[in-house]
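Q: Can someone sanity-check these two? First one:
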Amino acid sequence: MEIDSPAPSAMEKFTATDLSSLREELLQSGLDSWQAAELISSFLNVRGYGVSHHAARGAVAAIESGTLTAMREELEKLAYVM
């Protein structure tokens, strides 16, 4: 029997792997806040969520410097279903 990693709960929209990848890209890419907001917007759009670009820019620092849990919470605040 194959064991899968735990599925995110109904409240969690993003996996730890997705969040880790996004955070690593934000930290390693040297993007300015506008570019980082674009990356966050793209991350959300690919997963079927929209986001205000203004809100994404406001969340960049919190997302880059927080834990994965804090990052997930911040993204969930930003994301809206399209």
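And here is the second, same format, sequence then tokens:
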Amino acid sequence: MAQRKIDVFDTTLRDGEQVPGASLNRDEKLHVAHQLASLGVDIIEAGFAASSPGDFAAVKMIAESVKGPVITALARAVESDIEAVAEAVKPAERPRIHMVLGTSKQHLDHKFRKSEDDILKMGVDAVKFARNLCPEIEYSTEDASRSDFDYLCRTLEAVIDAGASVVNIPDTVGYAVPEQWGELIRRIIETVPNIHKAKVSVHCHNDLGMATANSLAAIKAGAQQVECTMNGIGERAGNASLEEIVMAVKMRGEFYGAYTDIDTRQIYPTSVLVRERMHMPVQANKAIVGANAFSHSSGIHQDGVLKNRENYEIMTPEDVGIEQNEIILTARSGRHALRHRLELVGYTFSDEKREEFDHIYARFLNVADRKKEVLDTDLHDIMKGETVEVPEQYHLVDFQAVAG
């Protein structure tokens, strides 16, 4: 089966930066943007140009300096926002205006307080206005997952006729589930008569923990662009995670019939840069980039990995830019793992020294039962027969009991 190229639209610098406490200054934004270009993303959404003079300046600086990806910024469907984006991205090699306007009854009734026809006209007029300022226009139908299907299709057809080159179908509030979402994208592609004139994109949020799954379901259904962030950061529970989508497509490309142009070896360095600059650490068991993603502490797993890493790893740490997997020595580690780590720090045991190694292993378990993790320094002490000091975690100062 021929594989389709999926464009990766990174919105770390726009949607990701909307997380409280994660905002960046101009130099930090530029640093991250250059790294995203090294990662190989197709589109960088550099900010919300009309939101502040500082954000406008940051978007413009990125447009002037970062080569390779399309550079875009978000606008509401109003002329002042569109003009701000057009001016900010004008220096880019490949500029794009990205505008958003809601299509759900919830938004029409309670946000805009306008009719379907009024909002449709507003969107069409905005696209026509933007086309005079920039050759590439992306139109997002905000809250698409809760929108009436017929109205959604009518909107998409109208904005494509008006000049939109990309139409984005967002699950703005994380309401979608993969089976329904994939079916929605498939029906849109089958129903909208001029859909072939634009790329179909999706933008999924993680409120129910399904942003990545929904994005992949959309790719399977025919979407050509996916919007995501590094480490899955973003509004509320976050966005679809770039690294998860990219590695799922890489590992299961035959199933999805798709590929990306991401240099996966740049995933981990990019993840580290984003978490450091945005002060947003990732959980240890985060897929792909978490501290434990390629670590093994179970004795059974350690033994299997040391015999053949594919026993318990479907991808290598090097695939995503991590130097190596990690064998964590704990009370659950077996002899194979201990022997491996001892060899790494300079101790070897022949088959004739099996009894000696058994004594070492017993001493190791004694230490491991008292410590959560046995470090290389502890191994040296164990080999010397010295007592391994376990730092005091708690010290009982006083204890009182009252009963009645």
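A (reply): Looked at the second one. The first strand starts at residue 4 and ends at 5. The chain is about 45% helix and 15% strand.
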